[in-house]
Amino acid sequence: METPVTPTLLAAGAPALPHTASNGQLLLAVLLSIGAIVLLITRFKLHPFLALTLGSGLLAAVAGAPFDKLLASFSTGFGSTVASVGLLIGLGAMLGKLLADSGGANTIADTVLARTGPKLLPWAMALIAAVLGLPLFFEVGVVLLVPIVLLVARRGNAPLIGIGIPALAGLSVLHGLVPPHPGPLVAVDALHADLGVTLALGLLIAVPTLIVAGPLFGRLAQRWVGPLALPEETGPAGTAPADTAPVDAAGKGERTPKFAAVLATILLPVVLMLGKALADVVIDDPKATVQRLFDFIGSPLIALLAATLLAMLTLGRAAGFDKGRISETVGSALGPIAGIVFIVGAGGGFKQTLIDVGVGQAVSEWSGKWHVSALLLGWLIAVLIRLATGSATVATITAAGIVGPLAAGMSTSHAALLVLAIGAGSLFLSHVNDAGFWLVKEYFGMSVGQTLKSWSVMETIISVVAIALILPLSLII
User: Fold this and answer.
1) What do you get for the CA distance between the two ends of the chain, in Å?
2) What is the pTM of this model?
3) Rounded to whole angstroms, what are the CA distances from 288 to 277, 293, 399?
């Protein structure tokens, strides 16, 4: 059973904020704070980190919390979230950077495509995207996969949307449902869910969701959108042509990592975390030496650290990188994710403020009176925030903070399913306020209408299919 989260139970021993506001006042505080965050991000184009910080202050002020306690509450939530999630985001970025720069991504793509016939190309692209999507952030995955998609479309004379949608679906499903991506990690931390169980159930939900939203919907989207001209280059800003081969440290493109080594490196953290979850179920003795060993090597930090260190050899050295190049590659991965870490941290502070002023407890009481499924409630809240802000990460963080207390009495599996329900809701209907919408539009050379009929509908299908699988699964396990 999970540890109950109440308005007086704070991370790292922070002082509690007095819970003196009525439920009506708390509801007003939530609506105003979320409205302010949405307005600041969408209308005034304020960075989400600043918007979440200001929203936390407005939330506490309307709820009647003293400002001297607000700072402690926000900073505690910020610090605990960055400590638990920020390290994993950093390691994941390093692993993804090594995979991209070493040519490991091309090795995976070339190997799979060499064994695939024309009719199976959409399925092959979905598989490639799912494998590469495990350690990569969505935006990095798109930039990495677009040249592969264009190359495959040229070589196989295949429709761009028909193979592009499966690739995008593979990335998006992993981004929303499977740790160690930032959204699921934040929700796991906020709901005190078991990461191994969440990973296992996330993969279980991800496979059929990817099949429906990827290769199957890709056929329909292909007819809706019509034929697209293949861009001469991979991006709108004069990036490298799609046919450019990966190069090693010397710029000759002669050495690339082996397929088996790349696949083993990518799957290592997944195997270690799943092994921990399996050991917890089979052995079920925290004092047993074997279970303690699996708990250690299967912890997210150790699993990702091991994969990153292994990648330096199997990806970096195999590509001909010297020690200096490997160090430079790993170091360069941290700069681009600084903004993500600060957004996640500010979201943690906002989440902690929601809990400390009593919003989470009030939502728990309301859901009991209304007899609303916690899973459905988490999904709906994430959907609304996603539609308003366009950010899947902000939607996940805020929804997890609001429904967090509902996970207190849940079983391990149901807490994991709540994480997945929130992640599914955070993907709903990407449209013009989402940076991913414009990224896809520009890279594939589509109009706004074509992007809505393909990418936006695909995201909605992922969200709806995932929650349609999660709800009945909760009745079984």
Assistant:
1) 15
2) 0.76
3) 15, 9, 37
